[in-house]
Amino acid sequence: MKGSFEVGSVEETWALARAFAAELKPGDVVCLEGDLGAGKTTFVQGLAAALGVKGRVTSPTFCIVQEHRGAACFLVHMDLYRLAGEDDVLAIGWEDYLAEGAVLAVEWPERAGSLIPPDAHHIRFLHAGEEKRKVAIDAASQNKI
Ligand SMILES: Nc1ncnc2c1ncn2[C@@H]1O[C@H](COP(=O)(O)OP(=O)(O)O)[C@@H](O)[C@H]1O
Ligand SMILES: [Mg+2]
Questions:
Q1: Closest ligand, as measured to the CA of 129
Q2: pTM higher than 0.85 for the full model?
Q3: Is 42 in the pocket of ligand 1 (CB under 6 A)?
């Protein structure tokens, strides 16, 4: 599901995330890029709902990683903002999660450097007004929206 989408509310962001979630498979890495408040964590709430995860999805900024075990899917939500680089990312169990077949939803993925696999999804969020956001999913150039 590639393309640029405009969403006008949190509910529309959730709906977009649910549509995107339909094509996720174990071991997928989803990089979430964009400024604070752009909607990255909100998108993960939609992913979690679609993947059958129970419980609230909140920002993992302070605990870095949150594990959500659903009936059919293991979703791991990371916010790497406070990490220095790849060694830190390995220390929180990056490879173990992938080996376990988790779907990794990663905020501030640049901290993970070369650990991000070449086939990772890249989703970029841009503010476009109070509740409007532009969401580019696997766009050829992430700068083009
Ligand atoms: N269309 C929208 N999509 C996502 N969030 C929205 C939207 N409109 C308003 N918001 C608000 O913007 C904020 C987004 O926060 P969050 O998802 O935590 O962003 P991030 O993780 O990128 O810092 C929330 O307070 C949310 O209610
Ligand atoms: Mg966030």
A1: 1
A2: yes
A3: yes
